[in-house]
Design goal:
The structure holds 2 protein chains of 2 kinds. Chain A is an alpha/beta fold. In chain A, 28% of the residues lie in helices and 18% in strands. Chain A is built from 9 helices and 10 strands. In chain A, strand 8 and strand 9 form a beta hairpin. The radius of gyration of chain A is 22 Å and the shape is globular. In chain B, helix 1 crosses helix 2, helix 1 packs parallel to helix 7 and helix 3 packs parallel to helix 5. Classes of the chains: A alpha/beta, B alpha/beta. The complex binds iron/sulfur cluster (2 copies).
């Protein structure tokens, strides 16, 4: 197996276009002549929940599947995930790996702030998307950042990949055009850093292997897949899921209770005067409340600025 | 021929499209639904001339599939996991009718607990039903196997339905380069179905699956299914040779990887075999003479081929991505049952990949170490349940939360 396999791992949240971004990158590599494999990993689909996707590019066959443990490149759609250890964004990164982050913060700040090994490139892709697409649609411009930074393919190849992937999911040509402009802007703004010199070789055989772990038998009280306590979900905060924060303007609120009734997370309570109070520890930022509020008393504030 | 990036699901749908199926009874379930969505879209755009009908359950879906096949239609359907076991009764029924059809199963572990990721307890539960089973490793193999499955199921010596299995997520949602054969070339390989038996029509009344009492008639019909399944081995060989001739890709009933001079052999099936092959290469680079045998045709079970491939090795590990609770690995038991006598190697059983659990590289080192021991200490059929201490500690942490301990 002398093939060099390059590994890209994408992290983001449900709804941010992680899977599509990975598919555009892999399509660009495919059109450029690489052998590729792409796959997403997610649970029961939920907006805001962490999602991962993988792209492998090789100059030969790919004898791998599933989770990428040791990525050459991590593409991060949403820098708020860095603070979430469960998302394991930095897992497997080394001194020669590359972290590409959508954020307005400078790369040095991210590198120092989160002790990131290896190189960091940042680009405010959200602002590009908001400017050119009118929405935080990140897939194509994030692919622009990834393809440029890794020098995986030239612009015309990437443009072809964007058009193929966006058309395949049924977007109209006008929207594809706008995405192409956003992608090009990200592509041009990103530095071409390139891969580390060599692809990651699999670890050698371990002669020191001793014994396989033997799983003990536990009593059914703990061995059954049941949740034996109330409100365990309250132990888990979701504040980091938000890209936008809903903020209520009480002067415009008519106390109609709609937001309270419709919040899918039960994150809105009513105070003694029946005004809504948002529990920001458990609000996942789906913005259902913003859309449903009849007098438009709830506004969305970008989380970094909140 | 053109090359495109396709998921395993899209490859399955392309198989049905190129087979020019007539009828597609459908019921959605993750991670299979994309297959039906693709087919529905093509029918909607006029690119595929077939009738797609959504049914009220997998039970009805399989009934409709069998009934349509009995009219001489070429039938395709797909399901996964809970859906397959929900339709379970009809697997036996339809197979007993001796009608040809192709059912794709996208493997997903069975509840409870509930998950979306794959293992093979779903498809292997159907192993005694009379459906033949092809287990695919790659997206390309999914497409090719669907085409080959139609030849197999429609062959007059066989006429048993065929189940093509692919892993959820690891193939279903994974895109790889896939060569799409030209429609004309497929038409030559797989001409329109000409039923020789079971051709229900308005002018030709028939009864399927009649009642028989007294045992001997029942036994006769079941034995005939066994004979047909046995015949399927030779039929498959012919189809595979023709497929290789026409399309340049050859598929055996099993696949050997670095097997010829291997002293130690790992037996696996489905998409995780890819990971097994990489581990074999890694161990080879370290000087270990390891090889892999991938089981592809699981029903009929290719006994002679497996005996020939495994006899005389120093030791063999079977990795099952399934568990028969109270016994262990299903494929281990099947492989062990055919290896007897002086040249039979010592065997070790490992369970891994349940619910999509990832294999760790060091586990292959440890399995090899266990094989070295097995060579000296001989037979053992106790399954080893692959799990790491790190995972165990993480699980304890989850359990702590589940029990409300802060
Ligand atoms: S409805 Fe509003 S408060 Fe509730 S989770 Fe969504 S954004 Fe947060
Ligand atoms: S939906 Fe709007 S108006 Fe109604 S209670 Fe909520 S914030 Fe107030």
């Amino acid at each position: 197996m002398s093939a060099v396999v390059r590994h890209l791992r994408f992290h983001g949240r449900g709804g941010e276009g992680v899977k599509l971004a990975s598919r555009i990158v892999s399509r660009a590599a495919f059109v450029a002549g690489w052998t590729v494999q792409d796959s997403p990993l997610y649970g029961a689909e939920r907006r805001g929940a962490p999602v991962v996707a993988f792209v492998r590019c090789s100059d030969g066959p790919i004898h791998e599947r599933g989770y990428i443990e040791m990525p050459d490149v991590v593409v991060l759609m949403d820098h708020s995930l860095l603070a979430h250890l469960d998302a394991a964004v930095l897992h497997g990164l080394g001194e020669d790996s590359l972290l590409l982050v959508n954020t307005a913060q400078p790369a040095e700040e991210i590198k120092a702030g989160y002790a990131v090994p290896g190189r960091v490139v940042t680009l405010d892709v959200s602002t590009i998307a908001l400017d050119l697409l009118g929405h935080r649609w990140l897939s194509a411009p994030m692919a622009g950042l990834a393809v440029k930074a890794t020098a995986l393919a030239p612009w015309p190849t990437l443009a072809q990949a964007v058009a193929i992937e966006l058309t395949e999911i049924g977007l109209d040509s006008e929207f594809v055009e706008r995405n192409l402009r956003a992608t090009q802007q990200a592509f041009e703004a990103a530095p071409a850093v390139g891969w580390a010199a060599a692809g990651k070789a699999p670890p050698p055989a371990r002669a020191s292997a001793t014994a396989l772990f033997v799983l003990p038998r536990l009593p059914a009280r703990v061995a059954a897949p049941s949740i034996d306590a109330e409100a365990t979900s309250a132990l888990r905060t979701m504040d980091g899921w938000r890209v936008f924060r809903p903020v209520v303007d009480l002067t415009r609120c008519t106390r109609c209770f709609l937001c309270f009734a419709l919040c899918p997370e039960g994150a809105i309570q009513l105070d003694s005067q029946h005004y809504p109070v948002i529990d920001y520890d458990h609000c996942k930022g789906c913005l259902v409340c913003v859309n449903e509020c009849p007098p438009k008393a709830i506004s969305e504030v970008r989380e970094e600025a909140a | 021929m053109r090359r495109d990036l396709l998921t395993g699901n899209a490859a399955a749908a392309w198989g049905a499209r190129l087979a020019e199926v007539d009828y597609i009874p459908a019921y959605p379930i993750t991670p299979q639904t994309e297959i039906i969505e693709d087919l529905a879209q093509w029918i909607g755009r006029g690119e595929l001339e077939a009738r797609l009908v959504t049914l009220d359950s997998e039970h009805s879906m399989l009934t409709a599939a069998g009934a349509a096949a009995a009219t001489g239609a070429r039938v395709f359907t797909a399901t996964s996991s809970q859906g397959l076991v929900y339709g379970f009764e009809m697997l036996y029924t339809v197979a007993g009718w001796r009608v040809p059809l192709v059912l794709v199963n996208v493997s997903r572990a069975l509840a409870a607990p509930i998950t979306l990721e794959p293992d093979h307890n779903d498809v292997l539960a159907a192993r005694d039903s009379g459906f033949l089973q092809i287990h695919a490793e790659t997206c390309q193999e999914v497409l090719d196997s669907v085409l080959m499955a139609y030849r197999l199921t429609e062959h007059p010596d066989v006429l048993l339905p065929v189940l093509v299995n692919l892993d959820g997520f690891y193939l279903s949602f994974t895109r790889e380069p896939v060569s799409l054969p030209a429609a004309a070339a497929v038409r030559e390989f797989l001409p329109a179905y000409q039923p020789v038996h079971a051709k229900l029509s308005a002018g030709h009344a028939m009864a399927q699956g009649v009642a028989v009492l007294g045992g001997s008639a029942y036994a006769f019909f079941k034995y005939q299914m066994q004979r047909a399944a046995e015949a399927a081995l030779a039929v498959h060989a012919g189809i595979a040779a023709e497929f290789a001739d026409r399309f340049g890709r050859s598929y055996g009933v099993v696949e050997g990887y670095q097997l010829d001079d291997a002293e130690w052999v790992i037996v696996m099936a489905n998409s995780f075999s890819t990971v097994g092959k990489a581990e074999v290469s890694r161990l080879r680079a370290g000087g270990e003479k390891v090889g892999l045998l991938r089981l592809r045709l699981v029903r009929p079970f290719p006994v002679a081929t497996i005996v020939a491939a495994l006899s005389g090795r120093r030791a063999v590990a079977v990795i099952d991505q399934n568990i028969s609770i109270g016994k262990g690995g299903i494929l281990f038991a099947e492989v062990a049952s055919v290896l007897r006598g002086g040249s039979a190697p010592p065997l070790r059983s490992f369970i891994g990949g349940l619910g999509g659990r990832r294999f760790r590289s060091e586990e292959f080192d440890l399995m090899l170490a266990a094989l070295r021991q097995a060579e000296h200490s001989g037979g053992s059929s106790e399954p080893h349940l692959l799990f790491s201490e790190t995972e165990y500690l993480q699980l304890r942490e989850m359990l702590r939360i589940a029990h409300g301990q802060k």
